Every structure is written in structure tokens, then in C-alpha cells.
Amino acid sequence: MNQFLRRLLFLPDQASTFALDVDRLHYFVILTTFAMSTGVGLTAIWFFIRYRRRSETQTTPHIEPKTWMEALFVAVPLMFFTGWFFLGYREFVRQYTPPIDSMDVYVMAKKWMWKFAYPDGPNSVNVLRVPAGQNMRLLMTSRDVIHSFYVPEFRVKMDVLPGRYTQIWFNATTPGRYQILCAEYCGAGHSIMRGEVIVLRPQEYEDWLASQRRGLLVSQQDGQPTGMDFVPPLGNLVEQGRRIAADQGCLKCHTTDGTRHIGPTWLDLYQRRERLSDGSVVLVDEAYLTESMMDPALKIVEGFQPVMPSFQGKLAGPEVAALVEYIKSLQSDAVRTGPSEGPAYAPIRGR
Amino acid sequence: MRLSEADSHALSGAPAAPNYLHDGTTVMSWLNTRDHKRVGIMFLVSVVFFFFVGGLFALLIRFKLLQPGPFFVDALSYNRMFTLHGIVMIFLFLIPAIPSAFGNFVLPLMIGARDVAFPRLNLASFYLYLGGALIAIWGIIHGGADTGWTFYAPYSTTTPTQVAPILIGVFVIGFSSILTGINFIVTVHTLRAPGLNWMRLPLFVWSTYATSIIQVLATPVLSITVALVTIERIGGFGIFDPARGGDPVLFQHMFWFYSHPAVYIMVLPPMGVISECVCAFSRKNPFGYKAIAFSSLGIAFVGFFTWGHHLFVAGQSVFVGGAFGLLSMFVGIFTAIKVFNWVGTMYRGAISFKTPFAYICGFLYFLVFGGMTGVALATTSLDIHWHDTYFVVAHFHFIMVGASVMAFLAALHYWFPKMFGKTYHEGWGLVAASLIILGFNATFIPQFLLGNFGMPRRYYQYPEHFQALNVASTAGATLLGFGFVLIVIYLGISLKWGSRAESNPWGSKGFEWLTASPPPTHNFDEIPTITQMPHDYRTHEPSGVIRVA
Lengths: 351, 549
What we know:
The complex is a heterodimer of chains A (351) and B (549). Chain A is α+β, with helices and mostly antiparallel strands and 351 residues long. In chain A, 35% of the residues lie in helices and 19% in strands. Chain A folds into three domains: 2-50 and 68-95, no CATH class; 103-206, Cupredoxins -  blue copper proteins (Immunoglobulin-like); 231-335, Orthogonal Bundle (Cytochrome Bc1 Complex, Chain D, domain 2). In chain A, a hairpin with a 4-residue loop joins β6 and β7. Chain B has helices at 5-12, 27-31, 36-64, 75-110, 119-141, 155-158, 163-190, 203-235, 248-282, 289-302, 318-346, 355-378, 380-386, 390-420, 426-453, 467-497, and strands at residues 529-530, 544-545. Chain B has a two-stranded antiparallel sheet.
């Protein structure tokens, strides 16, 4: 019955603990609405058939409703509406009261992307990984205008405001991939401000988290792996590149989150086709990245000024490689390592 | 002192014109008129023009949405189009449509007055409307705005498009709305014919009176709000900018404090039209006259306390959400009272299925469905999934098009003989009504399903699984568009070549039919004394008599 009605009403899959309860009220409310509007329509048609005009000068009796009828007109809708309201409000309060054992993720929205930061784990752009069956609380804020975090399969939505935090919680039941949509109009990229929630089985989530932590561990030991730990070299190099980029001042002009600054953003830069100021198009690969560090004025991306200094002789070979690997790792659907950039916010449970 | 038409002609020495349409035929005689009927006609022409402008934007939007990816226009143009569709339809069509056009024309006739209380103010109201519209159009031509008609800060305060001229246009149009409201309130209080006490007022007058109260009390808040956004854009005051201590949610509270009552500015006059038409076409007294009349005032009152239901997921507290949710239910109750009474009016009547009656049937179905989905949206937890999706779009189009435009068309057909003294073609009327009702369902029922499916509104591109329903909706919109064009064609033909209408072709006992159709310049040769309730069909006696002094 639930599945039949859900498909009939085009509702998406029910992938959180809220979904079924919300949908049950939805069925009740919509079926009542259908019954009521059809009832009124059919009564009007029946009255037309029964009482159609017999002559152009026909007179009609003066009829007024009895008091009990007036009372009924008020009481019946009042009963239904307040019934809906109390059922709905109970669920509403539940949806806005995160349980005490929730796991926190910080969400930063900006035109037109979602950034997620785990307090003690990795950051990511546009991809939120959560374990199934775990209460998750999202603490959300915006860098520019109002956005709204919406996952249809979870039946959750909350506006994301600049200058304050809003929170939302959910418990995903079914492993899978679900689209995050921005539901509050935010400009030209509003409709493509989409992300993804990947719900993992708890064990898969632990594995993923562990692999991320290994990368972190290495960086905390200043990039000196001991023989005891196996560390994927990529994570190491990427982390090195990140530090070099900060030390050398690259990040003063290049952003890593997609926003336009003095130089082109590094997010999704690798394998991007850039139009140059002379009209030609270049595919950004390792060679182009290296060349641009050594002789930046040679190929200027259209719309930018040739202000970057040359790093010839300032960077060693391995450092250039680390920077290139770091830029390659900045894909909006990939996960970055590094300490949380999330804002300070009192967690629910003491850590 | 009231002058009869004969007196006034004796004073001016001009020959008596047969009716207001022939009392001066130059352009200036229209542009400089004080006659409420001519002001009403000028409003009617303007709002119909803007309805087609807004409708054109709607069709362009629907055409783009045939494809999920970039198609036909770019994102910025698309965003401008839905913004302009909203602004034109709300501020230039729906708000003035029934009160300023039909209200101006029939309200003084219904209460047996020679004109509104302030005829010059009435004309000024038209020019403010036109002036505001021109300022807004200037902004549209010079870049347009991409904020959505809701102008949410801080997007509206930071976007580089031409938001300021459009806000100033809306500000000026607001004064037009306020002046019309004041004029109607004073007119109803002071210019009623002898014998027309408050409990005999036609129901259209009651609903217009309730609307006028909202116009006078709520519109200033809109003016303040758009003025603040304009000041913030031009002067950088930071009222809605959190970086400088402002609050973006404050904008939403102020905006909806006007814009939710504004929904009742758009829907109460249509309810009044339906109250008149149901009685006229059922030849029946209104079932529960007082219930219908007072529920209009009830809606006007409660409408001021429901704005927070637009902010359930905007960051207001859970308690405030609940309070606004519960208060919103009362609007549903008052509307339900009206619906039951309209259906009750048909009971044991003598129903004639003319074009306006077809629109009444459409109106009843759409109002109940649209209204109850509105109550469903106010059921807090359901709103979380539906908020800012196509479900909301479909819901308010059911009210704005399904109810308000249906009533506008009912009014247009019902009062067409009264206004122009011509009959329209009944067959074509029914064809157009069926096209519109069918096209309307085909357009907006898929949008309800799209909302359930999770498609947010104001989406230029959308995930591909939404495409089928979008194509269905566009097909319906095309049908709807044909219906509206058809009406303009056959009414235009009737205007030019239609046969002469009788003075009271419907045999209606609404008070506006006590005078000739079209009415003389001063409405009544002698002011009638009202002796009955409106729409009393027990006898054939006229509802008013001329007392010979």
C-alpha cells in the first residue's frame, strides 16, 4: 500500500527514518483533499442536473442554512485541519530536535557548492559520506547568500543562512547515493548547485575514515613515514603539496574552492580546458601546470592579468611534483585530507 | 447635493448622451475622465495587456523546461524571465485585476452611487499604476532583475541586475493600491443608496471592502520593505547584511507580512465575484449571506497573522513555526465556510449553465484543491519536503490562476453586457472555458507531482528524471494559452459586431442591474431606494424602486 501510493504520487525513495512517517501523513492529507474537492465538484454538478432552470422567469424559494449546518461547516474542516496540524507538528518537532548521540558535520554553502567538514576528519566538496543507521547532525552556514540544503529521499530541507548557523538532522537507512539540491534561489548557478550524499554501510564508512586518517597521521608526523605504517604515497605527496602551496603564497591568489580570485581557481583545474588570452584553448595537464609555475606569462588564461611571478629556481623538482599532485587532488567530487576548516560550534556531546 | 442626470445636463447645456461610452469619444475624454466606469475600463485594458505580457514569459519558461539541460536561453535570461513573470502577474495583473477594474466599474453601481467618493483620486490611482508600470518596464528593458518576485535579501541587495528601478516601480504601484482601497472604504461608508443598510450590501461589496482594508493596512509595509532594499542597494546600509549587523531573515518577515495578506487581496475579490455569479446563475438567494460576508472580514483579519508559514525552514524557531501553522488553519476554515455556502446556494435553485457558471465550477474545484493543499503546506512537517519545490508553485497557481483568473473570466463574461451593452457568443465562451479548465489541469497537476518528486522551483537545469512531467506541464500550458487567446478574439469580435444586449440579459437581481446597460454617465437617472436583499428571487419585483418625491 505504501509503495503503491508512493509511486502514484511520484514520491522519491524513502531513505531516512523520517520518510515513512512524513509520507503516511502525506497520503492522509492528499487523499482527504482529493475526496473533498471531488465531493464539492460532484455536488455542484449534481445540483446543476437536479435544479436546472426550467423557465427564464422561474422563481426560487428563499433558503437559509440552519444553525446546526453552519456549525457543521465550521466543525468538519476544523477537525480535519487541526488533526493534520497536530500529527504534522509532532513530526516537525522531531525533525528539528537532533538526538543527543548525533555525529556532527559542518556544512558551508557558497555560490554554488557545498563544503563538508568533519570535526576530526577530512574535508570534502560536494560529497557527504555518512554511515547508515547513524544520527547525523549538520551545522550549516553560508558564505554569501541564502541557500537551502535539500535531500528529497530523506524528506529533509533547511535554509542555509549567512551570518548564523542552522541545523538539521537525519538518520539514513539505506546505503546508496542521493542527490543534494539547493532549494533556495541563489543566482545563475542555483540549479546546478548539487551535491551528493553517499550512505555507506557502517563498516565501509569506518574503512573510508581510517584511510583518510592515515593520510592525516602522516602529515602530523611531518611527512616522515615510519616503516611500521603503510601510507599511500599519493596522500603523502598531496599533503606535502598543500603545505608548499600555503608556504609559497600560492593560495593568496588561487582559491581551492572554485571561487574566482586573482588567479584561476585550482578546484577542478586538472584536465580542464582553459581558453587563453590569445584565443587558443589548452588542456590543463601536468606539463601545463609545471610550465605555468616556471614561466607564468607565457600562457595567460583569458580574463586574468599576467601578474604571477616565476618560480624558476624557487621550487625544487619534488616540490613542483607535490604541487601538481595537490592540484590534481582538488576535484569537486573527491575528498581532501587535512584538518577540519569547520567553524567552532559547541558539539552536542562533549568530545 | 446629488444631481440627477437631467439636472446636470440642464446645467451644462449638453445633450444627454445615451450612455457613458458615448459621453465624449475623444482620447482626452478617456484619459482625463472622472467617471469610475471609464477608470475601470482603462484598468481592465491595462491588466489584460499585462496578463498577456506575463503569460508570454510563462510560455517561454515552460518552453525552456522541455529540456533538462541548457536550451533555448541561458541561465541568467531564464532567471530574469521567471522574475518578470512573477512581478508582472502579481503587481500588474492580479492585485489590480478585480478590485481596480471590476471593483471600480460595479461597486458604485451596486450601492446605488453616482461615482466613487473621490473621483479625482480614482484617476490618480490609475496614473500611479501606469507610472509604476512604466518605471518597472524601463528596468526590464535596461537589464531586468533576476531575484525572483520575492526579492530575497541578501541576493537582491547584491545581484548586479537592475533591481532598483523595478523596486521603485513596485513602490509606486503600491500607492495606487492604497488609494483605491481608501476610495472604496469611504465610498461604501458614505454613498450607499437609501434603504441599502450593511446587511443588504451585495457580497461583492463585502469582499471588496475586506480587500480594501488589507490594501490600506498591508501595502505600506511592502513599500517600506522595497524602500529598504533600494536604500541598501544604493547606499550600502547593511540592513539585511549579516556582515554589518543586519539580518536577512528580517527581510522575509517584512516581505511576507505584506505578501501573505496580498494573497487575500488577490483572492477575496474573486470570491466576491463568485458570490454574485452563483446567485445570478442559480437564481437563488445567497445561502448563509452573513456567513459569506463575515468570513471575508475573517480572512482579511486572520490573513495578517499567518506570514510565518513561509518561513518554516528559514531558521525561525520550532515554536514560532507551530504557532503560524495553527493560525494558518483558520484561513482554511473561513474559506471552507464560503465554499459550503456557495454550493448551498445552488440547492433548489434554477441553474443556467452559461459560460460564467462553467468558470464557477472550475473555481470551486480549484479553490478547494488549491486551498486544501495550502492547509497541507501549513502542516509543518509536510512543508519540509515541499518547501520551495514545484508543489508550492502548483499550489499557488491553483489559487492564483485556478481561483482568481477563473473568477476574473467569470466576471468578464457576467459583466460584459453591463460594461459594453453587447452579448458575447455563448458557444465560443463554453469552448474557451473547457480549453482553459482542461489546460489548467494539464499544466499544474504535473507540477504537484514534480514537487512530490523533489524538483525545486526556479531551476534552469534539472535532473533528467523530472523531464516527462515537465513536458506534460508545457503541453498543458500551451492549451491554456490558446484558451486565453480565443477569449480575446471572440470578445473582440462581440465588441465590434456583437448584437445589442438587453439591459439585464441574465435576469439578475444584483443591484448593479437596476440601471441600464451600459449605464448612463451618472449611473442612475434617479437613485433607487433599495427594498430587498440582493438576489432575492422569490418574486419578479425589482429589488429597488424610484421614490417619487
